Amino acid sequence: MGSKISPDLFRAYKRLSNVSNNSANPNDLQKSVWYASGKTYSKILLQDLAIRKFLKSKISFAGIVQIVIRRYFRKIEVTLFVTKPGVVIGKGGSSIDQLRKDLLEKFNLPADIRIEVQEFKDPFASANVIAQEIADALIRNIPYRRLAKTYLEKIKYSGVLGAKISIKGRLNGGDIARKEDFANGSVPRHTIDSSIDYSYIPAKTKSGIVSVKVWLYKGDKFKNYTY
Predict the structure, then answer these.
(1) HSE, side-chain direction, 13 A CA sphere, residue 57
(2) I want to staple 213 with a disulfide (CB 3.0 to 4.6 A). Which of 52, 138, 161, 166 is the partner?
């Protein structure tokens, strides 16, 4: 039988780890850039996960593509790749200042924390944005087949070479859980050099949790990079 593995973890060593490169595809960057050893490693790792969960709950409406956390000596940089940067920044930077204060109050972080917002112009080229929008629509009881087919049509015009959407759970409120897949183009999930954007979002519907998974194939872009 085949073993299941995260597409992100499968290609972890192929991702860019350089500290200052924000010009590349956000999904090709390492999510966390820092060094730690011993017991400090697990502590910082859990804190990174908590920070991401907190940020996603605060700015979920902004179309989050990727959150990159870089740690230096007594300094932290958080880069937010979003489709609606104006919503995160706010009028005169008020929203992002409040977000910085909330992070300092909730987590034991250095006072020198910098939050940078980068715009991701094509929302239909991000698996995370698509999965989040489908999950939100399922909560509002919109038919899942219509959702999946509509987004596959939109993905075609975003330059993505292939896409797959998998929805699993008690679909349309049925008594028995089942899974349905919708695909367009090629998605080579077993090729390590392929650039696969993957996202999983659980939708908490009235009939139970419905999982939404999205794969986007963007070509063999990794071979153009130097490591």
Answers:
(1) 8
(2) 166
Residues of the chain with CATH 3.30.300.20: 31-119
pLDDT value, residue 227:
39
What gap in Å lies between CA 129 and CA 148, rounded to an integer? 13
204, 206, 211, 217: CA torsion to nearest 10: -90
At residue 74 the predicted structure's pLDDT band, cuts being 50, 70 and 90, is confident
The band of 2, judged by pLDDT with boundaries at 50, 70 and 90, is low
Question: Please, where in the chain does CATH 3.30.1140.32 lie?
Answer: 123-224
Looking at domain 31-119, its CATH architecture is 2-Layer Sandwich (3.30)
Q: What homologous superfamily is domain 123-224 in, according to CATH?
A: Ribosomal protein S3, C-terminal domain (3.30.1140.32)
Residues 6+ apart with CB under 8 A from 162: 183, 184, 185, 186, 187, 188, 215, 216, 217
Which pLDDT tens digit goes with each residue over 116-158? 898 888 888 889 999 999 999 999 989 989 999 999 998 988 8
